[in-house]
Design goal:
- It is found in: Endoplasmic reticulum lumen.
- It comes from Microtus ochrogaster.
- PPIases accelerate the folding of proteins during protein synthesis.
- One of its GO terms (molecular function) is peptidyl-prolyl cis-trans isomerase activity.
- The chain is α+β, with helices and mostly antiparallel strands.
- The chain has nine helices and 28 strands.
- The chain has helices spanning about 80-85, 100-105, 210-215, 325-330, 435-440, 505-510, 520-530, 540-555, 570-580, and strands at about 45-50, 65-70, 75-80, 90, 115-120, 140-150, 155-160, 175-185, 190, 200-205, 225-230, 250-260, 270-275, 285-295, 300-305, 310-315, 335-340, 365-375, 380-385, 400-410, 415, 425-430, 450-455, 475-485, 495, 515, 535, 560.
- Strands 1, 2, 3, 4, 5 and 6 form a six-stranded antiparallel β-sheet that branches. Strands 7, 8, 9, 10, 11 and 12 form a six-stranded antiparallel β-sheet that branches. Strands 13, 14, 15, 16, 17 and 18 form a six-stranded antiparallel β-sheet that branches.
- β2 and β3 (about 75-80) form a beta hairpin.
- α7 (about 520-530) packs across α8 (about 540-555).
């Protein structure tokens, strides 16, 4: 594309053209005989090439540009525009041409070829032109019309393709990016953007373009194709442009609009799908996981998280992503699908980035919000069912519980379920056997109660995720407490339901030999449990717990416990307090 120039208003006259511009006073005289012997009364027109399409025909007062060869009846050439490599550019029907040429050009189409036979009285008459055209000469012209326009013409716009969706139309002061092929009216190509591998980028209505192109682009939609025909006085006028656009040339542009924006544009949001029950919307500082397809305004895809089979994870409103995306993600709900249109000054600006996002490109993101959370979020607990009666005790730290659960992502993707196994899940609360958020959510429950838990990643599997769990994923649990057993105080493996025997060592020393072996110790503890006098830590292998208890009491690790070694946990704790004091 060329920049608008200052057209000259001087019409060049060529020396030989004076032959064609003589006044009709030279056109008097009788015509020469026709091949049949009778004189010609009018111009004989042979249309030996007629183009398939003829959007307009030459009329009186039109400005035309054409090439011709002029010969006599014997074929001798007396003049040719080809020899001068210069088109004839002139207004027809106003007496500036010989009458025969004026008449012969009427009704011609661009690219039409005609053979004109001009009798003397419509040419140079009985006088002729000294040294060049003899008197009473019949003239033969081979003419090809290359351009036609009228000073009353306006820009002609033909819409070749209009996309079904048109988010906005080009207006004055907009910045546009478009591809084009530029030709003269006869189809001669003079320029195109495709050969340069980039769009033509410019402001509309600011004098950066020729006037006709400024007008022809108005009202276009991104993705639209137009044919724009511009008369010379709205293009490069009498001067033309360089060697590729001759003076007084009509220009034809086939344009594809890639995108349009205005420097005053803000981010545009379009909600494509909004899930029911949206109780929370993303705000600055939230951490979000989302999928997206990123495209240019003409639909060209430049990036997609789906192709990587991984969400894009980032903080919102913290400057980690382009400003337009930072703005466009705020206010979104979990599960929402929205379209975010980002103007270039809120994206990658005039320079673009990489080889897929050109400079000054408007970006369109189709986003699906998978989940978001805030680093300060607690576990969200929603009670789905609570038994109306018989809930005198609830689960607490240290309790041994059995429960069923379903675990999924917030978008509904199923991860795990206890129902897939033969037995429910077992855990001792506060024992670091389950993720922290689930541990908190299971506390305070009644047997038979059902809850929904939303666990943020910092209370689940964090940024790294786990097997089957994406990094930074918010987890959704549905849990049902099936049973609970009171836990033991921290550090205890066994507790008495009443005061322990006063003669504990003697009762434990079953064979009365002054020492307690592992078998004796195990038999004694099992007897206390069976008689209901005490209980072991729930949820653990009883034999292993008893072995651990024996090793704790066998302080010198000689495989037996003496009276001096045997101490209750409460006594040990008291001694430790005294030592600290």
């Amino acid at each position: 594309m060329f920049l608008a120039g200052s057209p000259s208003h001087t019409l060049r006259r060529l020396p030989v053209l004076s032959l064609l511009l003589l006044l009709q006073t030279l056109e008097r005289g009788l015509g020469r005989a026709s091949p049949a012997g009778a004189p010609l009364e009018d111009v004989v027109i042979e249309r030996y090439h007629i183009p398939r399409a003829c959007p307009r025909e030459v009329q009186m007062g039109d400005f035309v540009r054409y090439h011709y060869n002029g010969t006599f009846e014997d074929g001798k050439k007396f003049d040719s525009s080809y020899d001068r490599n210069t088109l004839v550019a002139i207004v027809v029907g106003v007496g500036r041409l010989i009458t025969g040429m004026d008449r012969g050009l009427m009704g011609m189409c661009v690219n039409e070829r005609r053979r004109l036979v001009v009798p003397p009285h419509l040419g140079y008459g009985s006088i002729g032109v000294a040294g060049l055209i003899p008197p009473d000469a019949t003239l033969y012209f081979d003419v090809v019309l290359l351009d036609v326009w009228n000073k009353a013409d306006t820009v002609q716009v033909t819409i070749l393709l209009r996309p079904p969706q048109c988010p906005r139309m080009v207006q004055n002061s907009d910045f546009v990016r478009y591809h084009y092929n530029g030709t003269l009216l006869d189809g001669t190509a003079f320029d195109n953007s495709y050969s340069r591998g980039g769009t033509y980028d410019t402001y509309i209505g600011s004098g950066w373009l020729i006037k006709g192109m400024d007008q022809g682009l108005l009202g276009m939609c991104p993705g639209e194709k137009r044919k724009i025909i511009i008369p010379p006085f709205l293009a490069y006028g009498e001067k033309g442009y360089g060697t590729v656009i001759p003076p007084q040339a009509s220009l034809v542009f086939n344009v594809l609009l890639i995108d349009v924006h205005n420097p005053k544009d803000t981010v545009q949001l379009e909600t494509l799908e909004l899930p029911q029950g949206c109780v929370r919307r993303a705000v600055a500082g939230d951490f979000m996981r989302y999928h997206y397809n990123g495209s240019l305004m003409d639909g060209t895809l430049f990036d997609s998280s789906y192709s990587r089979n991984h969400t894009y994870n980032t903080y919102v409103g913290q400057g980690y992503i382009i400003p337009g995306m930072d703005q466009g993600l705020q206010g979104a709900c979990i599960g929402e699908r929205r379209r975010i249109t980002v103007p270039p000054h809120l994206a990658y600006g005039e320079n673009g980035t990489g080889d897929k996002i050109p400079g000054s490109a408007v970006l369109i993101f189709d986003v699906h919000v998978i989940d978001f959370h805030n680093p300060a979020d607690p576990v969200e607990i929603k009670t789905l069912f609570r038994p109306p009666e018989g809930c005198n005790e609830t689960s607490n730290t240290g309790d041994f519980i059995r429960y069923h659960y379903n675990c999924s992502l917030l978008d509904g993707t199923r991860l795990f379920s206890s129902y897939d196994y033969e037995a429910p899940q077992e855990a001792t609360l506060g024992n670091n056997k389950v993720i922290e958020g689930l541990d908190r959510g299971l506390q305070g429950m009644c047997v038979g109660e059902r809850r929904q838990l939303i666990v943020p990643p910092h209370l689940a599997h964090g940024e790294s995720g786990a097997r089957g769990v994406p990094g930074s994923a918010v987890l959704l649990f549905e849990v049902e407490l099936l049973s609970r057993e009171d836990g033991l105080p921290t550090g205890y493996l066994f507790v008495w339901h009443q005061d322990p025997p006063a003669s504990l060592f003697e009762d434990m020393d079953l064979n009365k030999d002054g020492e307690v072996l592992a078998e004796e110790f195990s038999s004694f503890i099992n007897a206390q449990v069976n008689e209901g006098k005490g209980r072991l830590m729930p949820g653990q292998d009883p034999d292993k717990t008893i072995r651990d208890m024996f090793q704790n009491q066998d302080r010198n690790q000689d495989g037996k416990i003496t009276a001096e070694e045997l101490k209750l946990k409460s006594d040990e704790d008291q001694e430790r307090i005294h030592e600290e004091l």
